[in-house]
């Protein structure tokens, strides 16, 4: 998603003035620290707060690159919008690289561990909320010779009382091959729930029509020329309660008037725009000592 689109979505100036007059100001700050891993197919930047997006002195801006090279960067560009948020009772917390940590993790430093394993790396990021109610653990699994990245999120109640109304959101702002395309932020978008109904897979992709090829009305269809379709996806083992492909503010509970479209059996979609995926899970209560787990794949 382009940064300019974020600005277009803000309230008119006079509404902002009114809001600032009655609400406390929260200053978020950006955070790009982490580790960069390169394998046979992928280069990823694993942020210390459990998302993708790292500013590396050696590699530059790295989120998700397939194939390897900044021109093929698809997340750490425009607004760095790989992120998460969690709402529990009256409290909240969340992170994306361009927003920085907010809520009950705003001044919390993550505990980070990186383990080299036979076929890649495991990176673990642990955050404990300032109210000492939740421990959030993000465990990445990077496999050298695979074209995907695994992320598991653990949510543990470390307090003494049951947490009510637990809600989690995950955002993934794909801008497929944005530098290669001259910083063009539009992609084909769709939920791949017709061909793959059990994967909870949302996809952003490009094909020849994005490069000026294709026939009229031939949007989102697989190309037969040298420019094969380029797919970037995000899937969850746990089915989301709801989702939106057109940017819902992850800093608030709920999803309102979501935009939804499915990819056809032929792999086509008419939805070509600057989107951002939001998944939402309503997880109910969390008892003291209980842990709930969400499994993701990029």
Layout of strands and helices, then pairs:
Layout: H1 3-8, H2 13-22, E1 34-38, E2 43-47, E3 54-56, E4 60-62, E5 64-65, E6 83-88, E7 91-96, E8 100-103, E9 111-117, E10 120-128, E11 134-143, E12 149-157, E13 163-172, E14 187-191, E15 201-206, E16 230-236, E17 242-244, E18 272-273, E19 277-286, E20 291-297
Instruction: Output mean pLDDT.
Output: 88
Strand content: 35-45%
Q: What is the percent of helical residues?
A: under 10%
CATH class: Mainly Beta
Low-confidence stretches: 7-28, 208-226
Rg over CA atoms, rounded to whole Å, is: 19 Å
Number of domains: 1
Overall structural class, as computed from helix and strand content, comes to: mainly beta
Number of strands: 20
Overall spatial form: globular
Describe this protein's structure.
With 298 residues, the protein is mainly beta. It has one domain (36-297): Beta-galactosidase, Chain A, domain 5 (Distorted Sandwich), CATH 2.70.98. Helix content is 5%, strand content 40%. The protein has a nine-stranded antiparallel sheet, with no helix packed on it. A six-stranded antiparallel sheet has the order 8-7-6-13-19-17, with no helix packed on it. Strands 1-2-5 form a three-stranded antiparallel sheet, with no helix packed on it. Strand 7 (91-96) and strand 8 form a beta hairpin. It starts with a helix and ends with a strand. 40% of the residues are buried. Residues 7-28 and 208-226 have low confidence and may be disordered.
